[in-house]
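Section 5: illustrative case.
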């Protein structure tokens, strides 16, 4: 091992998104870096410059010998860094560790894993370095007539959810973000969105019918705190699937609170189940987002990758804890498990 690679062994490669959290990434890095120094955490820092930049920066850093990465940003920067890690073939993925100091507007992955919003406490998670091996998902989809592949470690959304995320991201690019902006976008999209006739193959079992939206989760939180896959356990080797069938707009508005309290599966129009491999076809095309990043559309294929990512979690994170554990979510053992 070269001397430069030896010096990197106990250092973190910090990937900072300066635009995260309405510019907090740039503004707050001075404070965060000083906290890291006070905690005795060695690092080298680099700022992203645009979309997909974190993917390239991560892959290049791995080739140079870096094995510990910390994202100073939000869920989108995390997703890009994850794709840089899982997309490389330089070293086994489990040799690479990922931490986060959240400065984004959603921070749904950090919420799942007990990463504090307080910078000092978030830096402490790096110092303690409690490591958890979580599942990851790989998704293949269509975009501009070509087949593409992407990894994710939190939640994929299809249908209504994907359209909301696409529009919310356009508003974010103009400097407008946060949970209130997301909810405004959700209600605006609701006025014009139409259901799709969608077919899902879930480990060889089938569901077909009119669909409003689908959430496929490794984690539980999306959209700045919504809980659409409340039973997800991040290392159990299963996708948790929530399907909202054709539903009236007034019914959606009346039950918006169920998106945030973990009781969504109780609604009669909601189906929940689990699967390891999923294929999705739809007429018209159903659109896709993963970890808050807008991608393409159907046909879509997904596969779970068990305990694929080594991530640094909060001291109080309990991987076995689930929301509303008294509710039973079936595995796909028969077609009746998901309908």
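Designed sequence:
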């Amino acid at each position: 091992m070269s001397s430069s690679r030896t010096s990197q062994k106990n250092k973190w490669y910090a990937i900072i998104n300066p635009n995260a959290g309405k510019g907090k990434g740039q503004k707050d890095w001075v404070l965060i870096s000083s906290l890291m120094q006070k905690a005795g955490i060695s690092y080298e820092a680099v700022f992203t410059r645009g979309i997909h930049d974190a993917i390239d920066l991560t892959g290049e850093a791995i080739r140079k010998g870096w094995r510990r990465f910390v994202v100073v940003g939000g869920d989108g920067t995390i997703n890009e860094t994850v794709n840089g890690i899982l997309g490389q073939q330089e070293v086994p993925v489990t040799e690479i560790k990922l931490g986060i100091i959240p400065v984004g507007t959603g921070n749904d992955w950090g919420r799942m894993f007990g990463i504090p919003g307080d910078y000092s406490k978030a830096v402490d998670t790096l110092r303690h370095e409690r490591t958890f091996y979580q599942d990851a998902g790989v998704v293949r989809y269509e975009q501009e007539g070509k087949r593409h592949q992407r990894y994710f470690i939190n939640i994929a959304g299809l249908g209504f959810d994907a359209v909301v995320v696409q529009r919310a991201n356009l508003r974010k690019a103009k400097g407008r973000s946060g949970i209130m902006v997301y909810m405004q976008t959700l209600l605006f999209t609701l006025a014009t969105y139409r259901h799709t006739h969608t077919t899902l193959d879930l480990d060889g079992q089938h569901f077909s019918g009119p669909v409003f939206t689908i959430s496929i989760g490794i984690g539980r939180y999306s959209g700045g705190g919504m809980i659409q896959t409340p039973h997800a356990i991040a290392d159990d080797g299963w996708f948790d699937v929530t399907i909202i069938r054709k539903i009236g707009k007034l019914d959606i508005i009346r039950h918006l609170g169920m998106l945030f309290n973990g009781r969504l599966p109780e609604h009669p129009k909601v189906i929940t189940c689990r699967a390891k491999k999923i294929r999705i076809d739809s007429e018209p095309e159903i659109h896709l987002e993963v970890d808050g990043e807008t991608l393409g559309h159907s046909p879509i294929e997904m596969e779970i990758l068990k305990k694929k990512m080594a991530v640094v979690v909060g001291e109080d994170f309990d991987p076995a804890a689930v929301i509303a554990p008294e509710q039973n979510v079936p595995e796909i053992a028969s077609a009746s498990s998901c309908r």
